[in-house]
Design a protein that fits this description.
With 258 residues, the chain is α/β, with parallel strands linked by helices. It has 13 helices and 10 strands. The protein folds into 2 domains: 6-198, 2-enoyl-CoA Hydratase, Chain A, domain 1 (Alpha-Beta Complex), CATH 3.90.226.10; 201-249, Lyase 2-enoyl-coa Hydratase, Chain  A, domain 2. Bound molecules: acetoacetyl-coenzyme A. The site of acetoacetyl-coenzyme A has 22 residues, from helix 2, strand 6 and helix 6.
Amino acid sequence: MAFEDILVERKGAVGVVTLNRPKALNALCTPLIDELGQALAELEADEAIRCIVLTGSEKAFAAGADIKEMKEKSYADVLDEDFITGDWEVVAHCRKPTIAAVAGFALGGGCEVAMMCDMILAAETARFGQPEIKLGTIPGAGGTQRLTRSVGKSLAMYLCLSGDMIDAETALRAGLVAKVLPAEGFLDEVMKVAETIASYSLPVLRTCKEAVNRAYETTLAEGVLFERRTFHGTFALEDRKEGMEAFAEKRKPNFKHR
Ligand code: CAA
């Protein structure tokens, strides 16, 4: 289906969603978030897709929630709508692997949406920040929580309380970002990572992602037990057998995603 504020492409087994409100630096207005939810649901349901890339423009991944849309809302409005978290969490709930490909600004809700993805790959032009404090408010889509878990208290406090931005290299050192890539040919390099991920068995990708995410929600002992049982569970899959047989026979595995 055609969207107004995003573009959706299927490149082999990779779904690419591009935030596309260039005049507003991809500010995340409600219609855009609705479209993003629909697009992700379609890609989730598409059996041919095994990895999803979420990206923006060269100038901005997204400059945050749409301030112009938000500015007239009352407390009762945002409470009634459960503004931000209710709808936005679709990105975090995606069951296929997701990559945020960030060039330019990832601020406020932009940084928060990037952090909802499984990993962030950054162009060297990327800038991350939670500048809500400058607007008289605080992050509302997980910024204080996911950022703190990702980079630790001191840098999270610095970003949230000062409103300052960090560059891609700083984000890499802090663990917010998995890789920094040259701005030139950035999306081609991201696609190589996405295609590698998409070449693996989808049920194994799903369970692997669940196991990593478990680390955020539980104790080490429970997490390790969850991981071990999930690892055992892969032995019920044809693809686990195929992967090990292919290794022993020195050939490429032919995963059936079963
Ligand atoms: N919402 C609405 N419009 C925005 C926007 C936003 N978050 N960010 C940028 N825009 C608009 C600007 O208003 C401007 O529109 P006009 O041309 O109609 O004036 C256009 O995008 C281009 O922006 P600038 O002229 O400001 O571009 P710049 O290069 O000079 O500055 C910037 C870039 C530093 C990112 C600056 O635009 C900026 O500070 N944006 C706001 C960032 C921000 O505060 N984000 C947090 C939002 S609140 C939030 O996200 C809450 C949450 O936790 C979910």
